[in-house]
Amino acid sequence: MLSRLQDFLSRHRRKFIVTGVLVGGTIFAARYAQRRFVEFQEKQAREFFERTRRTTHFESTEKTCNQVILGMGEEMCQAVLRECSTEELLEQLRQNPKNKLELWEDMKIVAFTRLATYVYASSMLVIALRVQLNLLGGYIYRDIMTEQKQVTDELKQQYLSLIRHFITESGIRDLARYIRTQVIAVTKTMPLSQQLSLGDLEQLFWSLQMAINADTRRDPNSRMSKYLLPSQNPSHSPLLQKMFNETLDLLESEDAIGVCSHNVSRGFVLACDAIAESMGETLQHLPQAEVQTQQEQNLKFNQAGSSGAKNTKSLNGLENNNLLNINRVLLALAKLIPIISGLTSRGFDTTSRPHNLPTQLLTFYVVAEKTKTLGANVYESFSSA
Question: Which of 177, 178, 188, 360 is the least buried, fewest Cβ under 10 Å from its Cβ?
Answer without folding.
Answer: 188
